Amino acid sequence: MFEAQTLQHLTQGTWLGLLYSPFGAQDATYTGAVIENITLITLILGYVNAQIGIIGDSLVLLTGLVTLNLLPQLGRLNSFIVKDALLLGSGPVLLKSDLRHHKAATLSCFASTS
């Protein structure tokens, strides 16, 4: 409940605050938590499957961009924003690595069939 109230306070007056009207504070917060957990799971599974990792990397970039989009409306930095700024910085690095691994796996698959 604490996180729901904190996030509602942070997003009040921003476009993300619109999520609280149809869903309510609890459901909007749970939706965000589900998306973050899916991102976490895909990042972990990305160690064994580059395609899943690419999905996770893309979700990191997407959630980071959405959160950083709030910065002009919030008018100040806080841990909520800084965390996603760090993730947004690591997202392209992870994506590049997973794309490289996926390309190598694809090329080795074609090389073994010919």
Describe this structure in words.
The protein is mainly α. It contains five helices and no strands. The mean pLDDT is 82.
Low-confidence parts, pLDDT < 50 over ≥5 residues? none
- What radius of gyration results from the CA coordinates? 17 Å
Strands, count? 0
Range of helix content: over 70%
SSE layout:
Elements: H1 2-11, H2 20-45, H3 50-68, H4 71-74, H5 79-113
Keywords, please?
114 residues; mainly alpha
What is the compact description of this entry?
With 114 residues, the protein is an all-alpha fold.
